[in-house]
Amino acid sequence: MSEAVTAWQKLRHELEDAAILLDLALEEDDKTAMGEVSATVETVRESVDQMALARMLHGKDDEKNAIVSINAGAGGTDAQDWAEMLFRMYVRWAERKKYGATIVDFQPGEEAGIKSVTFIASGLHAYGYLKGEVGIHRLVRLSPFDTNRKRHTSFASVSVYPEINEEVVIEIDENDLRVETFRASGAGGQHVNKTSSAVRLIHLPTGIVVQCQQESSQHRNRAIAMKVLRSRLYEREEEKRAAERQADYQKKGEIAWGSQIRSYTLHPYQMVKDHRIGLEVGNVNDVLDGNLDPFIEGVLLATD
User: Fold this and answer.
1) Minimal CA–CA distance to 66: which of 89, 95, 94?
2) Which of 278, 248, 274, 280 minimizes the C-alpha distance to 262?
3) How is the chain split into domains, by residue range?
4) How far apart are CA 144 and CA 77, in angstroms?
5) What is the 3-state secondary structure (H, E, C) of 175-188?
6) Tens digit of pLDDT at every position of the chain (304 positions)
7) Exposed/middle/buried for residue 126 (C-beta within 10 Å: 0-12, 13-18, 19+)
8) Looking at the whole model, is its pTM more than 0.90?
């Protein structure tokens, strides 16, 4: 008997027991027993929701690690600050899930925030959970970088790819690659090292650009960049084969108005709204601190 069937039977028995207890509680007007019934029903409801969610994570790549890229869009320094806020949000979400988060590439902004960042979220079903985060994320707030404290709208894009394992063969012709090396630099322009250890790979046939500068070894940075490139090429091929995935990875266009999947409003009111499922949450700070599960799970359940 499968684990899923066993779990469903267990929940059914718990509800049957709760129904019997409820009848007795009503006959004796036992408030304590009624409270126990209510708690049991709530626990069963949560278990059913989790089982339904697990059923959503059945894609062939859903169990894999996720490669996440965040890029600042329209909005200048505010957008770069927003990209860094998003990065922190996803790292905090990963921590809540007990996932690892390893930076592959980090490009700091000129004044604040980041131009772009790529990291790997490591854990079971990381890609399955995060694949629905692909798209444009919009922030509305009073700008901390505007001396007049005017309201600004900023945008950042999020892309997610499954980290493919070594068993998946993706052939890359060395003649199709342009390899560039440069000095890695950190926030504020400080040099991480004095040698050209950072590596940028340009795949000429597709125009895909990947770079890694987090390791001190050029060889190690190239190996990580190749892993990311292979994952992106793999995903590119999957898009061609699967029409349903094309909807998730459709061309995003300009990172600006009209293309956002989610809006985060800090002024004149506080609200996070997912435009795909209509979910609204008033506690913006909680969301920015990594509480993304209501949105992630909502999208998964809505797209079943």
Assistant:
1) 94
2) 274
3) 3-56, 60-304
4) 10
5) HHEEEEEECCECHH
6) 466 677 778 888 888 888 888 888 888 888 888 888 888 888 888 777 777 766 778 888 999 999 999 999 977 899 999 999 999 999 999 999 999 999 999 999 989 999 999 999 999 899 999 999 999 999 999 999 988 888 999 999 999 999 987 666 788 999 999 999 998 765 444 445 557 889 999 999 999 999 999 888 899 999 999 999 999 999 888 777 654 544 544 444 455 445 689 999 999 999 999 999 999 999 999 999 999 999 998 998 887 6
7) buried
8) no
Contact (CB, 8 A) for 285 and 266: no
SS3 10: helix
**CATH number, span 60-304:** 3.30.70.1660
Instruction: Judge whether 235 and 256 are in contact, CB under 8 Å.
Output: no
Tokens 């940028």 appear where?
A: 200
